[in-house]
Amino acid sequence: MSKGRKIMITMKDIVREGNPILRKVTNDVAVPPSEEDQQILLNMLQFLKNSQDPEIAKRYKLRPGVGLSANQIGLNKRMFAAYLTDDKGRYHEYTLINPKIISHSVNMIYLPQGEGCLSVDRQVPGFVPRYERIKVSAYDLKGTKLEIKLKGYASIVVQHEIDHLNGIMFYDHINKEDPFKLPENIPVESLY
Ligand SMILES: [Zn+2]
């Protein structure tokens, strides 16, 4: 499948756990991004939008997702798309290239229901502690450098995606002995 064209990503394009590409640190993307890379990111963003549209999701059997990294569609490229409504009801849409967390809070948060992943076809119970606030540097589709401050749910989603780009899965953060044990000596709160 050529990913440089406008195409519709479906679940068959999503790489699942066990595939070694999910454990690789992805390569930086050339900036400004090529037209091909821009189109790939737009296809990824559209997948997320489609997956959250009940009719389209049903028709194409899409699992709803809020974030998708390029290695999750088999591409070794440091970029991701995210599309979500946060815990304050604010809407977020990102297509970020070479993202990097440049600073973060001490305080941490977690989703009480745990995290899920389009590349993981099973429930993995446990708390995934994430920084409550992060500042991210990245490039947008035009190659413009951005600095974005995120908190709450959006911060969690973006950390999940940047982890993917570093070969890290969400369950790597779950305590091995007790999946519901949280880090000690750090303030950690449930998001909801
Ligand atoms: Zn994931």
CATH architecture title? Alpha-Beta Complex
Helix content: 10-25%
Strand order of the largest sheet: 1-2-3-6-7
CATH secondary-structure class? Alpha Beta
Number of helices: 3
* The CATH topology: Peptide Deformylase
Summed up, the domain count is: 1
The span between the termini is 41 Å
Main pleated sheet:
5 strands, antiparallel
Task: Summarize model confidence as the mean pLDDT.
Answer: 96
CATH H level, superfamily name: Peptide deformylase
Radius of gyration: 16 Å
Low-confidence parts, pLDDT < 50 over ≥5 residues?
none
Structural class: alpha+beta
Order of helices and strands: HHEEEEEEEHE
Shape descriptor = globular
Strand portion: 15-25%
Cofactors, ions and other ligands in the entry: zinc ion
* Count of DSSP strands: 8
